[in-house]
Every structure is written in C-alpha cells, then in structure tokens.
Fold this sequence. Notes:
By secondary structure, the protein is of the alpha+beta class. The protein is built from six helices and nine strands; from the N terminus they run E-H-E-H-E-E-E-E-H-H-H-E-H-E-E.
Amino acid sequence: MHTRPPFLLFTDLDGTLLDHRTYSADAAMPALEWLKQKAIPLIFCSSKTPEEQVCLQEKLGIRQPFIFENGGGAGIPVEMPAMEDNLLIEPLGAYRLYYFSSVTAAEIRHFLKEIAIKTGLKLSVFDDLTPEEMQMVTGLPPEAHARASARRCSMTIARTLDEDSIRQLALLCRERGLALSRGGRFYTLTDEKVDK
Length: 196
C-alpha cells in the first residue's frame, strides 16, 4: 500500500505568519488551527532569536522545531530525536539548540565596532538599545527587548542605512566571511555559510 509522505510547513515570521507592523498572528489563526487538525508541523524559519521563537510558540500553543537567526541554528524540542553529535548543543528550557554557524554574535559585534572606527558608519545593534528605544524602532513592547537582544550567531542593525553605507558594509562583510541580508525592515549580519 502506498502511503502519502508526511508534510512539514516552513514559514518565515515577520510579514508572513506575523503582521509586518503589529507582530500579531491573528490573521493566521484559521490556518494554524487547520494545521493542528491535520497534524502538520509548522516550522518557524526566521532571523528571530530562539527566545523570541519559543515565546511565540507558547503564545500560539504549538511546540515544534524552529530555525533561528537566519539559519545560524535550530531549536528542537527535547522529546524529539537528537541531531548530529558533532554540532554544538545548548539547552534552552524544553528545547535543545544546535548551531550551524561558525561565527558568534560577539565576534560580529566586534567586527561592527572595527568597521565603525575605520569608516565612521554608525552601526548600533538591537542590544545597544534600551527597551524603550527598541519599542520606538521596532514597535515591540519593552518586555520583548531581552528576547530580541539574545543573539547567539547574528547581529541586527537597529538603524536605517543609506545605499552607499549598505554597499560599503556588504563588501566589508564579504571580506570577513559574513553575509549582510535584509529582512522586513532591518539588516542582519550572519556567517556567510548559513542561511534560511
């Protein structure tokens, strides 16, 4: 007897599952209910941090694997089979985090400081902001600050850049083995060897 292969649904978050401005998932709730009824796992694939994705899963009443920080790693519920042993693993509550990136957020932050000194570019990142400043820039409530700032293998630039600055930064990133990508509103730096 031929059985149908199981389905998985992968989704980005900002501007896809979540409203681009309000971060609400209300419009997606009928689809989420349908997926639950059909037992189709919904896999988040986002630039968001593990803490942000776990919080969202809890709000939506789901518990599934997720891909964080633009492919820098994946979170797997602890009750699911473990991934390869050679990947760096970190516990996060009821999840195991696996890292695919060979670059840490601290290394990217150091690189951005070097760039600011060399070029004069002002490159503040999310964790440079106070909770109130982050709310003004992103629309996220102040209590989301710690989750959005808990970067492990990427850094998101928290200000608008002009085209010349973007070109200059992208070139310097490539020289260092980093990728500069644009999400819905912000640019993020990651290891060039990973992506969503």
